[in-house]
Amino acid sequence: MSLDIIAARSESELTRFLEFPWTIYAQSPLWTPPIKSQERELLTPGQHPFWESARRELFLAVRDGRLVGRIAAIVDEKYNTYANETCGSFGFFECEDDKEAAHALFDAARNWLAAQGMTFIRGPLNPSANYTCGLLVDGFELAPTIMMPWNPPYYPELLESWHFRKEQDLFAYLIERSSFNPPEWLHDEVARLKAEGHFTCRTSSKATLTEDIRDMLALYKDSWANNWGFSPLSDGEAEQHVKELKSVLDPEFFVLFFHNGKPAAGMVALPDMAPLLRRLNGKLGLSALWHWWRARPEIRGGYRTILFGIREEFRLMGLPLLLLDFMMEKAQHRPDFQWVEGSWVLEDNVAVNDLLEDFSGRLNKRYRIYRRNIEA
Hints:
alpha+beta
């Protein structure tokens, strides 16, 4: 049987690239389909601001006329300049359980990245760590939350058989209302910090939401600046995130802490829209409102902490405790609230991992970023 790797450059080939996951996940009810129109925008240079400082090539694997896999090879110059690296990444990888096809796709991505002057390949990044990223390696029996991936259990073997190796794991912690029972010392410490009164706080509102999101993204940039894999958002990307977050964010689950009137820390938990996305199945249409109404109980029951940031000068003043305490207190006053997922957290961020465990968090999913030298 013949196998061909095709560069997807025409509109029709991009459409095949975008629609292929529905073949892979036809029998996978846990998978969360993206909205096709949004995915097309994200992958189209000139339409999404990510590509203002990045470039990509898309590849399709075709066996005897039938599409069996896809991959994107990506060079993010903004990240490479910031990190002083020559990193090429891969993303949007989907493939049948076919090592020959998977290896051919990885070869095509590596060869294109080598021609771009890159020295190693990292992924999956879709298209960077500021978007959906990582390969699920533990927790396959659980549905993903909003903007978190789910993939078949055979994917890690496809990558590792091509000699990809783990570079970093990303953790997801589940905090459930039914088992929320932080230790007594935590209550005492939070009470002490509140009594000291170094910070004021407030939730967001419709009137302040746009500026609050901009402040939160600035906090995120400052607090994550020295973390592994961090890539600063461009102004265009930041405004894109403002627009997207405004459409789904519940202001009551967006808290900012201030020191002398200036933002010092913030935290955003999004309602878990994944049940709605599974109902929509990639399409926005007249039935979207009906699907939203049917998914409403699930959406209100679960949240995902998507942004968490503390300015460096305030990190040792108890703000992580205050942020999580505020959010959990707010959640427990919502009768529909059942759980919140903290994701993702770097494996080597021991302080945050320990803090989530102190707040009754249970590690329930693990995602992996892989790496391989291009010349290997």
